[in-house]
Every structure is written in C-alpha cells, then in structure tokens.
C-alpha cells in the first residue's frame, strides 16, 4: 500500500498525467471517512454522509470518460448494521435518493448497474430502485457500476459456495469440475472484471471484508483524505500511482525482464 504520489504534474493530452493505456481497467473504492469528516467540522455524522454522496457522480463520470470497464463502490457493509438506528435510516434514505437522482446519469452514460450484497434487510424503497435501474441498464454496453450495499465478502463467498453445492447435489455439476472460474461465476461479481486497483480513503490500512476473492492481484492505494474531500484530482493521483507500478503476478515483471525501469 502507498500514500505517495509519483508525480503531481499532468502530462499533455489528458489531465490524468499518464498514458491512458497505463490506467487500470477496473477500480474498487472503499469510501471511508464520512463520519470523521463531519466530526472534525463539528457537524453531525449525517452531514458527512450527505457530502460523501455528492462525491460519487464526479468520480463515476470521470471513470467513464477514461474508459474504465468497471467501478465498484463499497457503500454499506453487513457490519454497518451495528451502527445507530437513526444513522442507518439516514443512509438508506440517501441510497434511495441517490438511485432516484442518478438514474438518468447511469442511462445517459450507458452504464450497467450491478448490486453486490444480500437483499435481506434492505428497505423496499432501496430494493425497488436497485431492481428498476439494474433492469433498465442491463443491455447497456458501457462501464459496470457496482454498488456494494449490504455487502460482506465472506458472506458473498459462502453464498457462492452454497450455489455450487446445490448444483452439485442436483447433478448439474461434477465436483471435480469445480475450478476458479466456477467459483468466480458463483459470486455477485460474475462477468465483471476483477479490480486492478483498490483505493481506500481516510488512511485505514485494511480490506474490511471487501472483495477478498476479487482483489487477489489488485494494487492498493491508501490516502489520508476523507471520502467527502476525495475529488477528481485525488482520483487522478491514485491512477497515476497505479500507472507507475510494475505488476509482476509472481514473475519477474516488465522492469526486471527488460533490465530497466518501467517506461
């Protein structure tokens, strides 16, 4: 993990400051720090959640402009149900309002909405909006916009294993045929490219039960910036950092193989 930015200058041609071909194709973000952002300003935690919700659209539209194939946002974990009831009520209202407000953005940008997580426990107003926009955007061809809402990676894996077990019990699947592809297809993210880059705001150095299977080969970028302050230039900084990495996948990697630094 790193909090360092290899460059603060933008290269000519695009404000990201690096060749577009060096950018990740799939990015996941743990949007953390809303409550602390508000507390540091003497505001209620709800103000942080409201400000954080406003940060989503600029990041989504910039990811689309840059040609990303997928953007996954960690919105609400299974563990978040342990928060005060009034805060949860505010969050669910914000999710429903976001989906209502952003439907046109999703459709205008040809995005494909995907809900990651369990449906149980989510209010009907949120589920109805998720179902409506998922159905409306199913035939779109653009970037996957995945909202991890009531999500936990261990729960996702357990649910996926249960699906595989039922197929095997029904005689639809030979247990000896179970491989990584079968497991990946049983997860909520089936068909979505695994993240190349994980961004976490607010400085916490942990995964928090997020995409444990899918992040196996992802690069990490951690910033002390709270999510309500994470803007497009901050997003560019994370992307530039990724572009400077030498991804080896257990091998020597480009730099070692060529005997020089990554160009």
Automatic annotation (TrEMBL):
GO biological-process terms attached to the record: polyprenol biosynthetic process
Gene3D superfamilies: Decaprenyl diphosphate synthase-like
Keyword Cell membrane assigned: no
Family annotation (InterPro entries): UPP_synth-like, UPP_synth-like_CS, UPP_synth-like_sf
Pfam families: Prenyltransf (PF01255)
A GO molecular-function annotation: ditrans,polycis-polyprenyl diphosphate synthase [(2E,6E)-farnesyl diphosphate specific] activity
Entry keyword set: Transferase
Protein name: Isoprenyl transferase
Required co-factors: Mg(2+)
């Amino acid at each position: 993990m790193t909090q360092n930015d290899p460059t603060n200058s933008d290269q000519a041609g695009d404000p990201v400051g690096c060749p577009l071909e060096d950018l990740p194709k799939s990015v996941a973000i743990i949007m953390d720090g809303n409550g602390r952002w508000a507390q540091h300003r003497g505001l209620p935690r709800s103000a942080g959640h409201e400000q954080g919700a406003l940060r989503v659209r600029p990041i989504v539209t910039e990811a689309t402009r840059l040609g990303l194939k997928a953007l996954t946002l960690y919105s609400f974990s299974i563990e978040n149900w342990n928060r005060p009831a009034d805060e949860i009520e505010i969050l669910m209202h914000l999710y429903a309002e976001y989906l209502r407000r952003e439907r046109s953005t999703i459709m205008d940008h040809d995005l494909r909405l995907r809900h990651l997580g369990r449906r149980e426990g989510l209010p009907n107003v949120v589920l109805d909006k998720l179902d409506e926009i998922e159905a409306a955007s199913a035939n779109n061809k653009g970037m996957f916009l995945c909202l991890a809402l009531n999500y936990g990676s261990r729960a996702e894996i357990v649910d996926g294993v249960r699906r595989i077990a039922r197929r095997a019990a029904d005689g639809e699947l030979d247990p000896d045929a179970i491989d990584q592809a079968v497991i990946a297809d049983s997860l909520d993210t089936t068909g979505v490219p695994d993240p190349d880059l994980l961004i976490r705001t607010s400085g916490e150095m942990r995964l928090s039960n997020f995409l444990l299977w899918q992040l196996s080969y992802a690069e990490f970028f951690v910033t002390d910036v709270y999510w309500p302050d994470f803007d497009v230039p901050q997003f560019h900084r994370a992307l530039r950092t990724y572009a400077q990495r030498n991804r080896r996948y257990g091998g020597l990697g480009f730099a070692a193989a060529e005997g020089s630094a990554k160009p």
